[in-house]
Amino acid sequence: MKQRKYWQYFNSRSAPTAFMIRSSIGRFEELGSEAGRPGKSAHRNIHIEDSVETVRQSVTGDPSVSTHRRFSQLGISRTTLRRFFKLDLKMHPYKIQIVQTLQPQYHLLR
Fold first, then answer.
1. Half-sphere exposure of 60 (CA within 13 A, CB side)
2. Angstrom distance (rounded) from CA 31 to CA 93
3. Is 21 exposed, middle or buried (0-12, 13-18, 19+ CB in 10 A)?
4. Which of 28, 9, 26, 27 is nearest to 1 (CA)?
5. What is the three-state SS of the chain?
6. Is 94:85 a contact under the CB 8 Å cutoff?
7. Cα 83–84–87 angle (5° rounding)?
8. What is the per-residue pLDDT across 74-96, written as a single tens digit (0 to 9) for each?
9. Cβ atoms within 10 A of the Cβ of 71, count?
10. How far is CA 77 from CA 27, 67, 69, 86, in A?
11. What is the pLDDT of residues 35-89, one digit of tens each?
């Protein structure tokens, strides 16, 4: 019934599900607005300058350490470490690819 009224009012066949309509109405009646409950927002990582400086010192001390080993040593998450690399330190972590060197005798085989 509510979906049909939604379709008629907005002139659209793509309506929210009945559950979404009921939960929105219940939230509005409980809180008085459509805004969510306070304190229920997504968890944000705290950007701390000390952590950035720790990562910078770690990289300057031993630049050959992999990001996997580095985030486990520093005790910060992998995504936070990658964010520090890209946004703060302007570095781009990558894995070095080891390839075979091209010898002169291989030119004949090509």
1. 7
2. 46
3. middle
4. 9
5. CHHHHHHHHHCCCCCCCHHHHHHHHHHHHHHCCCCCCCCCCCCCCCCCHHHHHHHHHHHHHCCCCCHHHHHHHHCCCHHHHHHHHHHHCCCCCCCCCCCCCCCHHHHHHC
6. no
7. 75
8. 888 888 888 888 888 888 877 77
9. 19
10. 35, 10, 11, 14
11. 767 766 666 656 677 888 888 898 888 888 888 898 898 888 888 888 888 888 8
At position 96, the amino acid (one-letter code) is I
| Whole-model pTM over 0.70 | no
Among 65, 63, 68, CA closest to 81 = 68
